[in-house]
Amino acid sequence: MTSKGHKRKLSPVLSTEESSTENPRPKKRVTFSTALNTTETYQIETEEESDDDDLMSDDSHTSWADRIKNDLDPIHDIQTLTNTALNSGVYMEEMLGGLIETKKGEKKNEIVEESNGETIEDEGTNGLKETTDLFKSNIFKLQIDELLKEISIDFTATSRLENALNKLKQIFENMNDKLDLPIKLAKSIFDKKYNITIPFPDPGPTCVQYKFGFEKPTAFYLVGSYPLKGVIRRRQGFNVDVAVIMPKSIFQEKDYMNYRYFYKRAYYLAVLAAALQDETSGFSAKVKFDTLDGDRRRPIILLESSDDDSDTDYSALNCTIRIIPCIPMDLFPQQRLSPSRNNVRPLRDQNTEDQQDQSHSLPPTPQYNSAILKDAYFVSHLNLLYKHTKDCPAFIDACKLAKVWLHQRGFDLEKNGSNGFNGFLWSMLMIYLLHDGGPNGDKKLANAYSSYQLIKGTMDFLANHNFLESPVFMNNSEFTRKSFIENFDAVFVDDSGTLNLFSGISRTELEHLQFEAKLAMKYFNESVEDRFDAIFLRKVDDMKLKYDNVARIVQLPVKYEEYTDSVKLDYPDQFIYFARTIPSLLKRGLTNRIKLITIHYDKLPPWSISERPKAYNSAKINFYLGFLLNPEESNRLVDYGPTPEDENAAKEFQKLWGKKAEVRRFKDGKILECVVWDYNGIESRGLIINKIVLYLLSLHYGIKDEGIRYFAGQFNKFVKPSPAVPMQIFDQDTIDKGFQPVMTAYDELSKVLLSIEDLPLKISNIRATSSALRYASVFVPQPCQQSQKKPKKLGMYLISRKYDPDTLHYCEPIDILIQFEVSTKWPNDLVAVQKMKLAFYIKISEQLKSNIHGIKATVVTKNSDTIISPTSYLEIFISGYAFRCRIYYEREISMLERVIGDKTSLSRKKEVYKNALEVDKRLFIDLPLHSSQIQTLCNKYPSLSLTIRLAKRWFMAHLLEGHVDEEFIEVLSAFVYLEPQPWSRPASGFVGFLRVLKVISAWDWKNEPMIVDLGENLYSDTSSPISSDHDKASSVVEEVKKKFRDIRGNADNEHGTLFIATTSGQIWGMDKPCKVVARRIQDLAHAAITCIDDIMNKETTTRFKSLFVAPLKDYDVLIFLDPIQCPRYYQNISVEKKHLLQLVSKKFIWSTIEYYREKSKWTGFDPVEWYLNELRGLYSDIALFFHNKYGGDIIGVVWKPIYFMPRPWKVNLGYSSMLTESETPHGKDLNLVTLNSKAIALEMIRLGQRLVTRYEFRK
């Protein structure tokens, strides 16, 4: 804990009289209770005193606990307690007034700071320095101040709570002692007379010889955060903790053994509950039982306001009073509660006389022992905390910020039963760091630190300290260091040296906490962004968004091998032990495949005082496992074990893996124990962890597949055609190979093109622009060429002559660009440039046909007398894939810009050239750069590919084809990987897709531009060689923000709502989707997130498909298409096999091979797309059209409402209209017209002819 050169320890040296001279008592005094006096007082001693102690107060070396004893006395009388808590007396004004109130006579914003005995009073001089030294930035300080203002409680509005506490004082003071009762009689009286079930822990008392008595409490205390003004405002409210000290006289010497203390504690609590619910008490509150920190051994009373508008109605504060029975610190000998001692005997031995002698032969009960110790140190810890709130002015604010951080991450014992870390432990850790924890044994924090510095310093220690190898001790311990390390997963011993504050924290919880702390430190240390929202404002505990894989166990194990009789002594609840040990088992099997594994289950709710407390095994508990994957190792196929010669290790390996373990010889000659996992398809390889978890749970806990819901690959099937699709239409074997075949074909084509010699100019570069070549196409590209072998009549389908064989399979064209070496011989006329390109296409085609066997090349042109490049291209078939090659001439864009800038050019000509320029920039500049960046990111983050494909599938499934560019979806998907805050970066397509939906629904699209750093230059090191890229990206960001402000500032702008820009200067979403469609996209995303929540909490997982089914009720017209005429119908999510069988049926005769060979492939042929384009070209002014290009057989039409408004008829109105009546101030006007929607809809159907089967006219 400390270094050899500079040791620091705590020792009892300072007396009460000495400390009182430095800290004079306030005018209003209360006295100590002798039963609760702190036994020792401590101060810090160092071998070498530091010369520079600017940051510590003058009395920094005074003892911790002894000085506190003179600052805060235990309180006998409840009136003093409430006055203290509510800041209504002189004592409280001095006690807490200095924490957040300024001194009288000073300006409100002045800073009071001790430094070498001097006070800094001039804010004007030192304000800038304070911001620089004490906070990250001025903005960060303002955000902290505003947050603290929002979460702090108004202590001036707590008069009714004060009345309630006074009433409690009266009730407890007026209670009478009760006769000692045997267990059976006590149970009977409380059940029949008071209707109270005594909250005995399990196992409950049965044939015990001792009796249960009651005497009124010896003292009462407000403990916890409330008396220190450290509570924060939360939705579920805050707690006001009242410690009730039970008298020594009701306990016996050995009550620390065999649950005797906990049984008497439960009886005492039941007596208090009976007094509180007595109608004659005059106190109206809802009385319930609950557990403290989820420990069934330590029940407490909850008092919820009855909301009766009485003087004691504190419901407006949204708080709960908790009554916590406590004991004096010296009630039991401390050595009897050592972590290495056993204090719970098996039931068969509990009545024997030699129980004490058996303790060495039984396993220790550290959790049991710690539960007793915790009840003894409430007041001591309050004193310690109070002392540091006086010495460190920002201590309370730092604790509040820490509570916000913990709450946002689910470290909330009020709700989450799986986490043991809370705000109290954070504050104790901060106290330790104010005295120790720094380099060379020095302190890590100082009293003069700001709240920002305190929380950051504590976060840094929490993130980087190795609690397993270097346990933390606040003071010298009476127990051996070994006794703590061997019996607890994590060790942080309080200043008494006896209580491990981390006793309830498992190693899994500690790893989770440190993982979150490391993320927070990463955000704290970022220089470009302050990340305040990611640290404090964003809710992080949503499992479906936080973890790459989530498992929900719905059938808990009834019995398993590890839960032995010895374990039951310290863990009487099998569920608690299961929750604590299951992560350890899974980590042994998953090894470095995962970065983190966590558990989550809800804490048992409070229960009525008339009921028995519920147990986890009897309650319906949602038990979840969360996995963060290591993308570099998670898809590994082999788990290597020890060599067979290492018998002990080999046995352990075989015990872990059961029948899966086998011995194999590997290529390097090693013979090892190993486990091999198989997979089928590129997506299924990402589910190996799923297989491992299911196998281990089944082997060791008997949890079968039906007992667990594993959420990881449920979306994978939506990027594959249905298994009902015949092989002739889609080859399922291609899916298993992923994108490798098309990338291989692209590489092969690139080599062929670059090797062509007999050309006027040499090809210098080949660039990809197709989504298939950046791993972003929804479906794995399918080779276009069908098999030319005639199939057998048995076991295969035959293709019909009735329909064109080419419509069986849609052939996706793959776009690439060809760039030649620089030459000045290109013509200066744009039309001539296009003709020159056409000549190159012909020449390349000839070279390929004559020199390369197996390649088919075709020149395609629509109009050679045009300035637009995309109208002509070279189509090349290689390895079954169709590549569309277009030539990029770098001067073409500048030639277009010169014509546009020429003042003598006609406006109509300029408009044509502007459109051509926009097309060329997108095709030759934006798309190649975009493809390169997305491809790089997909290689760097393997799961990004699946995320993009799922996001595209979702957009198109909701009929949004034509309203959203696929590049827009790709950039949006990349954003959740490049800006994953407040979570870690996704490592699975499942969570990546859900985060895309979350971003869509939660992003403030109206006020905040989404800027995506696809090149990852914005946050690069500015001192590195690529700092120029950083500067360029930063300047682009400023330009984009300015452009966004200009667009949003223009009230008449018609630009799209969803604005996404990249640091390369590309902007997506400027023109589409329109505001109406953007709003629908957000609503659909929000509904999808809600649906996922519902699915993951239910017993079934079959509803995932509903996320990809478009609701049709909002469309005015529905046009239904003939699936047989849709080349992409096989891609439909809800494909009907009967339609495919009409194409592929045994009753038709196979087309001749000659006929098939003569038919040329129509790449990109999709009559539905042509029909849709025609509808949009004719009717886009009056209607919006919606369609799913991936196999959709419905077109949705929504009329624009403005055209239903009556208006005067005129020539060239622009749409079909009909007369309508309209009320005017002068009566009915019969000369107005409105949209003739039915006639227009029928015209749309006529245009579809054989493609349309039926329609539904709704408006």
TrEMBL record:
Cellular localization per UniProt: Nucleus, Nucleolus
Ranges of biased composition (kind: Basic residues): 1-10
Keywords, comma-separated and alphabetical: Nucleus, Ribonucleoprotein, Ribosome biogenesis, RNA-binding, rRNA processing
UniProt GO BP: rRNA processing; tRNA export from nucleus
Domain of life: Eukaryota
Compositionally biased region (Acidic residues): 45-57
UniProt biased composition (Polar residues): 13-23
GO CC field: CURI complex; small-subunit processome; UTP-C complex
Nrap protein domain residues: 240-390, 394-539, 544-701, 727-938, 941-1109, 1112-1254
Species: Acaulospora morrowiae
Molecular function GO terms recorded: RNA binding
Similarity remark: Belongs to the NRAP family.
Region of interest: Disordered: 1-60, 339-365
Entry-linked Gene3D superfamilies: 1.10.1410.10, 3.30.70.3030
Protein name, as recorded: U3 small nucleolar RNA-associated protein 22
